[in-house]
């Protein structure tokens, strides 16, 4: 199967237009994930006026992340933050079995999962994020200490996300074990893993490179707030 890597140039839009279309809200030109899933939106092409089409689906004050390629935004939108991220794609190779067993998390684990991710990576993980894919974890003495899971899905690709280890349990290789297991699961389903990471997070990037992920493109994000109609 020939990989359609160009889909990853605009993964939010392409996910919402394919595998994740059931979670999409918006118009043919602009879509966002439903409230309380993940705060991301995508546009079909770089035209700031497409954002105005989404206003009918948002409440005043709602915030969304968008791939940062627009020169400006409409007057009803405010730029809150810019994040320099990169996109990395997994190069399939024989994957080692996870040393520690990784267990798929269930609804019973949702409170612990939500608390851990928002402790380590606040702001992205919502109450319904787990509807987008499966999440896996490692427990020590009954306590959830590390997690990772699936976020955006599009044809042929699955984004790995929420790779978190509790600050008291770092340095034990849990993130690597979870990612190895997740990569194996993803490849067995016929998809290629990819992920996004802050350019400044050198430690995470080193781990991903060690696990056969390579940088594909810069992936700048902008955090926008819909301020309401004038």
TrEMBL record:
PROSITE patterns (UniProt xref): GNAT
Protein known as: FR47-like protein
SUPFAM superfamilies membership: Acyl-CoA N-acyltransferases (Nat)
Signal peptide: none
The N-acetyltransferase domain, residue ranges: 88-230
GO MF assignments: acyltransferase activity, transferring groups other than amino-acyl groups
InterPro entries: Acyl_CoA_acyltransferase, GCN5-like_dom, GNAT_dom
Top-level taxonomy: Bacteria, Pseudomonadati, Bacteroidota, Sphingobacteriia, Sphingobacteriales
